[in-house]
Amino acid sequence: MNVPAHIAIIMDGNGRWAKEKGMVRLKGHQAGMESLREIVRACSDKGVKVLTVYAFSTENWKRPIEEVSGIFSLLVRYVAKELKELNANNVQIRMLGDIDPLPADAKKAAQKAVDSTKDNTGLIFCIAINYGGRAEIVRAARLLAKQAAEGQLDPASIDEAMFASQLYTADLPDPDLIIRTGGEMRLSNFLTWQSAYSELYVTDTYWPDFTPDKLQEAIDVFNGRDRRYGGIKA
Ligand code: IPE
Ligand code: IPE
Ligand code: MG
What we know:
By secondary structure, the chain is of the alpha/beta class. It has helices at about 15-20, 25-45, 65-90, 105-115, 135-150, 160-165, 210-225, and strands spanning about 5-10, 50-55, 90-95, 125-130, 175-180, 200.
């Protein structure tokens, strides 16, 4: 059985999970943090090379301030609670997205997580936070335009590989499998460039109910897929 090298997850459904239980939305995000801990461990154990999770989108700022700050507080808590074990498991943490506008303590926690795990050689665990696929593409275009304006780059030499090298995911393989929990059939601005040939798997299960067994189900489905990349079967 094949294990996808790069699994990316849209961790959706926290709010609905909480609402159905008569709880406030933030309780759903809290419960989601527990799922995340187990899924990171499972990916590490299965030998997945890269796990990317969508934690906060560039559009999620539209939510009430209490929810937004609650989510960032959870990031602080996650790092405080998990960093030791992640280090012990040789996990390397990366942030995809612009962490600058985050509240100071969240930004600090994010930087600490990245810095203290940067030499680890196991699972690469990417947290997409204040991430948007379109913002990432615009940023890459700007970086290349700057080099061209400075005379260091011939625009005619820009190709897909060069463009990809300016994305947050520069040295990472594209996701093989994108899982979305919570049932919505859309990507919501996640990995817009990188998802070109990703296999999509949507489950109605809300993120707080997503377990390593359900992850395995998704991987099993992935293994039954025929990835043609525009070609035809041999
Ligand atoms: C996903 O869960 C987590 C974030 C977007 C931060 P939601 O909060 O979107 O949960 P639903 O979709 O409202 O149930
Ligand atoms: C996508 O979920 C973002 C994250 C999971 C972080 P949303 O709940 O924000 O997406 P929409 O609004 O349903 O498209
Ligand atoms: Mg949602």
